[in-house]
Amino acid sequence: MTPRISAEFQIKLFCGNLVRSAGDKRNVKKAGMLKKSRIPQFWISGFSIFVALQSYNFLNMENTANEPAASYGQPLNFEKVWLMFQEIRDMFRETDERFRETDMQFKESERILNEKFREVADQFKESDKRIKALDQLFNSQWGKLVESLVEGDLVKLLYKKGIAVKEVLTRRQGNLQGTNYEFDLIAVSPTVGVFVEVKTTLRPGDVIKFVKSMQKIRDYFPMFSNLTVYGAVAYITAHADSHVMAENKGFFVIRATGSSASIINSEDFQPRKF
């Protein structure tokens, strides 16, 4: 005779495995789904299993070996079923506690990670500020070096273009009706004024901005109202053919190389009067 497994044992085995699986931290996703369910639903499921198993035992009560039924094969009574569901309830309570503990651990881990992310972000911001400060310092110092280089050759270069410079003014700045302006170099002769914008790296945006400044030059410097005014850009490197753009806008184009500078406009170039 093949002994029958009691309904009590089968239900406990099924529910015990279910609860242990749900409480396992490796099954957090499955456990999360289980946690959302209500316990009465499990009771109903357990009761359904109980009824099915009792029906199975009833249909298979015949003992082919004419032996007395084993104690583990006896039908369940109400008291046993009630005790069994209380045990299941306790297992669910224990699992729920595990869920709460796991949830608290996740929240604490999330809090720690957020703090670390904020610390790293603050460090990046501070590093970015320092890099920008160093970049500004480098460009400022390098720009002054380029200005000195161009200033030393400016008189000679403009003289070759027929402009007899008597004086070179540096770093002229001011404010007109709330608008700040600054010009790096101004070469002055009795009849001509040449305003020079010096850039370490010349870009198209620099050319466009300088055009707008030159269009207001007589407002900025009324003392040049009786002079012919030209513009010039000086640089070491140029991006996107900005030097060609500058010549097309009517500026003298001065390139600084090594220890000297030179005007690189085409031979037929005619400067624009502002």
Assign the structural class, choosing from mainly alpha, mainly beta, alpha/beta, alpha+beta, or little secondary structure: alpha/beta
Order of helices and strands: HHHHEEEHHEHEE
Note the main sheet.
Answer: 6 strands, mixed
Count of beta strands: 6
What distinguishing features does this structure have?
single chain; 6-stranded mixed sheet; rod-shaped; about 270 residues; 2 domains; Trna Endonuclease, Chain: A, domain 1
What does this entry look like structurally?
The protein is an alpha/beta fold. It has two domains: 115 residues; 119 residues, Trna Endonuclease, Chain: A, domain 1, CATH 3.40.1350. Helices cover 55% and strands 19% of the residues. The chain is built from seven helices and six strands; from the N terminus they run H-H-H-H-E-E-E-H-H-E-H-E-E. It has a six-stranded mixed β-sheet with strand order 1-2-3-4-5-6, with helices on both faces. A hairpin with a 3-residue loop joins strand 2 and strand 3. Helix 1 runs antiparallel to helix 3 and helix 1 runs parallel beside helix 4. The longest helix has 83 residues. About 9% of the residues have low confidence.
Task: Offer a quick outline of the entry.
This protein has 274 residues and is of the alpha/beta class.
Question: Which helices and strands appear, and what pairs or packs with what?
Answer:
Blueprint: H1 7-23, H2 28-36, H3 39-59, H4 78-160, E1 167-176, E2 179-188, E3 192-202, H5 204-214, H6 217-220, E4 228-238, H7 242-248, E5 252-257, E6 260-263
Parallel strand pairs: 3-4, 4-5
Antiparallel strand pairs: 1-2, 2-3, 5-6
Helix pairs in contact: 1-3, 1-4
